[in-house]
Amino acid sequence: MPHLPLSIPSPPPVLAQFNVGPLLIHTYALCILAGIVAAIIITQRRLGARGGRPGVVLDVIIWAVPLGIVGARFYHVLTHTGDYFFSGANLWNVFAIWDGGNALYGSLLGGAVGALIGCRRHGIKLWSFADALAPAMLVAQAIGRLGNWFNHELFGLPTTLPWGLQIESSNVAIQNAYPKGLPEGTLFHPLFLYEIIWNLIGIVIILVLERRLRGHGSELRWGKAFGVYLIWYGLGRSWLEALRIDPTSDGFLGIPANIWASFVAIALGVALIVVQARRHPEPETSVYRPGWVEKPEAPSSGSSTKKKPTDAEVDQNSDLTRS
């Protein structure tokens, strides 16, 4: 079956990784890192506009990102046990994050723990941080999904649509990913692209809702913007997982774990919006916890520690000089 003229080619497998001197660089990892950097920049700008001090997002992210990566990997492994635990399996592959296989829901769980630690250490309200993060998360996920394209993964049912994704039957990037029984040249739904588009639409929805509801009692603060994120991403991920046929998550009652997790995300998003709307009908006036006083930074070595004189001290010195 020849590929249709407008079908989407998968990148050559050689682009999935390359060497820089002695280092082996994985394109998938670069996409994840680019998404993290973009999310940090966006979240800092949003939180800074709401009163957060410069650099506070980095102070929180330093806890959230490592725990988010650990959570993402182990959630993936625990929901794909057949890919990692079998006779003759190399158990070190459990930690091979660069080969793909990082579950967003696992990153949310691990990242939430890290964000809670970071926010408590620096006086930021967790839900204020989550609201600033909400559209930035969708940006990071959209960028990260490009890594799935380079890894020849995250594709769906066969299709004859002109934007079908080309997947080679050997699929050297992901073993046993090509569905058995399908002829060479079969095109598949590009789920990675669908999710990118879905995430970009979600960014617009959150930003528009924030602008429309600003100044009203129903404004998207107190965690409600993050609730919209959970609902939107859960809805999109549930139907995308239903189309997916490359190695997918283990299931319960015939439903993949990622679809169950999507249902949970939707329910949590709805609950978060309803509960926070009742608990906090008032506008949010600060992203800091009540009573929090920012600790002064220690002076750098060699810098002057002399305090700026107060007005009373200036007047006193002037009197002494005149006398």
A few lines on this structure:
By secondary structure, the protein is mainly α. The protein has nine helices and six strands.
Describe the structure.
Pathway: Protein modification; lipoprotein biosynthesis (diacylglyceryl transfer). Belongs to the Lgt family. Its EC number is 2.5.1.145. The chain is mainly alpha-helical and 323 residues long. The chain contains 9 helices and 6 strands. Strands 1-2 form a two-stranded antiparallel sheet. A two-stranded antiparallel sheet has the order 3-4.
DSSP E strands, number: 6
Q: Strand share of the residues?
A: under 5%
Element string (H = helix, E = strand): EEHHHHHEEHHEEHH
State the separation between the terminal residues, measured CA to CA: 101 Å
Rg value: 25 Å
How would you name the oligomeric state of the polypeptide chains in this document? single chain
- Unreliable spans are 298-323
Largest sheet: 2 strands, antiparallel
Shape by Cα distribution: globular
The number of helical elements comes to 9
Mean pLDDT: 80
Q: How many structurally independent domains?
A: 1
* Order of strands across the main sheet: 1-2
Give the fraction of residues assigned to helices. Answer: 40-55%
Please state the structural category: mainly alpha
GO molecular function: phosphatidylglycerol-prolipoprotein diacylglyceryl transferase activity
InterPro entries: Lgt
Subcellular location: Cell membrane
Pathway: Protein modification; lipoprotein biosynthesis (diacylglyceryl transfer)
